[in-house]
Amino acid sequence: MAEDIYKPIDQDIHSEPMILQMGPSHPATHGTVRFTLTLEGEKVIKCETEVGYLHRGFEKECEEATWTQVFPYTDRLNYVSPLLNNFGYALAVERLLGIEVPERCDWIRTIMGELSRLSDHLTCIGAGGLELGAMTAFLYAIEGRELVWDLIEQVTGARLTVSYGRIGGLKDDLTPDFAERWAYTRERLIEIHETTHKLLTRNRIFLDRMEGTGVITPEMGVSYGYTGVCLRSTGVAYDVRKDHPYFKYGEVDFDVPVGKHGDNMDRYLCRMEELVQSIRIIDQCLAKMKPGPINTDDPRVALPSKDKVYNTIEGMISHFKIIFEGVQVPAGEVYSYTEGGNGELGFYIVSNGTGKPWKIHVRSPSLIVMGGIHKLFEGGLLADIIPTFDTVNMIGGECDK
Amino acid sequence: MMVEVLISLVKIFVIVLGFVMAVAGLLTLLGDRKQSSKIQNRVGPNRAKILGIGVLGIPHFLADGLKLVLKENIVPAGANRFLHTLAPVLVLAPALIGWAVIPFMDHYCTGTMQTTAEYTEICVGGEWKNYFSIMHLNAGLLFAFAIAAISVYGAAIAGWASNSKYSLLGGLRSSAQMISYEVSMGLSLAGILLIYGTLDLNEMARMQGYLLWDWLPMWGVVVQPLAFFLFFLAGMAETKRAPFDLPEGESEIVAGYLTEYSTMKFAGMQLAEYAATVFIAALIAVIFLGGWQIPYVYADGIRIFDNHWVPFGEQAWYWISIFLRVHAMIFKILVLVWLQFMMRWTLPRFRYDQVMTLGWKILLPLSIANLFVTALIVTLL
């Protein structure tokens, strides 16, 4: 009799892992991505990632547009830092054309690019706080982003879809009071940076959620092709701005923060430190830049002045040719890469010598991050998906193209 | 007999509807909307107006309520209709029933009040009349705990009956969390029970009128500081508010067991959460912060360092002291609720396993240690 009592316990009561569809419309999977999770209790044992819910056909769209008309499309790639995409694309086309842009243009691109990086990192840090329940930290960071966007709006005329870059130059110069307004924004940003540090960095709950979760090893980061903060948090100090300087990054002094463990906390700290570095870069640029032209005078790409358009036949023809047929880019191919908000943003461009691109391929850092994201989720808890997915900072527009 | 029933009804009406619902309701507005907007550098709700008046966004709150009443009641396909409807009731009812034993003031004395040398108030030449709590129960604390424990059924049933995996996870989390923290909650109070020697909440409040060395009020927080923190933490976890709001952790499991609820069912559950927040604040106030006691203020005058004077004459002072003490109790509750809201808007959310670790590996051993030390001291003295 006594043995019979224990029998039912030894038997395997029917149990199976639960399959949970997380996304595409789920509060945590912002930017529309779907995870098919296999859960054992709350432990994730398997994760299948499905991207592409925001696919707009960016690369195909570009083939139907002139080289200049591609700029608005690039705005929609990483919509948290559209200026970086603008400049990345402009740089690629300029390399293919083999033209140099004026000195001041490079300075402004550096400044505006770093402003975009500020907005990107502030959004990422704030959203991370929000998703962990610290809504207050989110709203403080968003205040900083608003200030940055006010500056961007002042210069470009738009907050999100800026379309500020041009082949061989920029849409506009900085406004005369830019330095003044930057001084105010800068002061406020530093305050917000300090407040965020106080609210989160030594917060025990925040540390428990972030430390040791979503760990990327340096080997994994390199082999999956991770770049940007995701790679730097593992200790690999690869930053395009430092290793392959473009614009004026070679002439300014800044540090590349690296992490040790590659966990969420390191990614958070790297972003926090990059905020400071971006502010440093902008300060130096404003001190070093001089007045001058912002657009190249190469007649192949530069629109003639309105005076010439209205008064000379050559000017008018040139204007029409550039607007209707597009800038004539010589046949060839180029791979040009810059440091985007999330990592190496590469444009691989093939031209067949006409006014429209033959092929544009974007190496979007977010898509590459999503390639290995299941490795970060598996073995962790369901709740760990939240900080991990936030700190890799996947942006749907860029990932799904 | 009829008079007593009538008095009870009036008390229920005033306390449950007038105080608890009003405070809980207003908290959704002032606590959750206006206070959070102040913390977060925002304006907060200010658009909704009645006749052009939008005081503190109160019309916004009324509009919200109206919206919730008028919305379509959705029961998801495959859900258990009966249990799905029952769950909000099971959550809301305990949050309100618990108020039956909370004393807002000492019993009313028909005779004259006197304070002994031990700072105990006695009623001479008359009898106590219970006018300031719905029901006088000498095991009030046990009653409060027993009732509070029922609400876990509501959450668990809501999670199961919704036929959604997110709800189920939320229901599981809330059951686990509430059961775990009840243990620490109970044990953290065991020490204070040894000192007071009673389960009667009003009696506890009365005992806290004692002045140690004639100046230090012997509130529960003075004699049991550790228990105060443990109870406060466990109480917050019990109410499932941030940073312990992982049963409805918005980011990973959508809204937990609330995911499939709409209309007043949802509002009822939300209201229950606020009511529970206020209830925990009331319990803490009574057990640890002197309840209705104000230091140095007694029913028969003001006493400090052996000085004793009676402003406005004895009978008038008795009425004044009652007025002051009821408001002191309400003030304490509001301060504690405010504190919980400040924490809610400052701290991030725990992870499920971290909450369990905190409950079982930190709070529970500390509660037991606190109990042992207290028992030792009580025995030796």
TrEMBL record, chain A:
Signal peptide: none annotated. NDH-1 shuttles electrons from NADH, via FMN and iron-sulfur (Fe-S) centers, to quinones in the respiratory chain. The immediate electron acceptor for the enzyme in this species is believed to be ubiquinone. Couples the redox reaction to proton translocation (for every two electrons transferred, four hydrogen ions are translocated across the cytoplasmic membrane), and thus conserves the redox energy in a proton gradient. Its main location: membrane. It is found in: Cell membrane. Belongs to the complex I 49 kDa subunit family. PANTHER family: NADH DEHYDROGENASE [UBIQUINONE] IRON-SULFUR PROTEIN 2, MITOCHONDRIAL (PTHR11993:SF10), NADH-UBIQUINONE OXIDOREDUCTASE 49 KDA SUBUNIT (PTHR11993). This is NADH-quinone oxidoreductase subunit D. NCBIfam families: NuoD, PRK06075.1. The keyword Transferase does not apply. It catalyses: a quinone + NADH + 5 H(+)(in) = a quinol + NAD(+) + 4 H(+)(out). SUPFAM superfamilies: HydB/Nqo4-like. GO terms for cellular component: plasma membrane. InterPro entries: NADH_Q_OxRdtase_suD (IPR001135), NDH1_su_D/H (IPR022885), NiFe-Hase_large (IPR029014). Keywords: Cell membrane, Membrane, NAD, Oxidoreductase, Quinone, Translocase, Transport, Ubiquinone. It is a peripheral membrane protein. Its EC number is 7.1.1.-.
Automatic annotation (TrEMBL), chain B:
Its EC number is 7.1.1.-. This is NADH-quinone oxidoreductase subunit H. One of its GO terms (biological process) is aerobic respiration. Keywords: Cell membrane, Membrane, NAD, Quinone, Translocase, Transmembrane, Transmembrane helix, Ubiquinone. Pfam families: NADHdh. It catalyses: a quinone + NADH + 5 H(+)(in) = a quinol + NAD(+) + 4 H(+)(out). The chain crosses the membrane at residues 12-30, 50-70, 82-102, 137-158, 179-199, 219-237, 274-296, 316-341, 362-380. It comes from Lujinxingia vulgaris. It is a multi-pass membrane protein. It comes from the Bacteria.
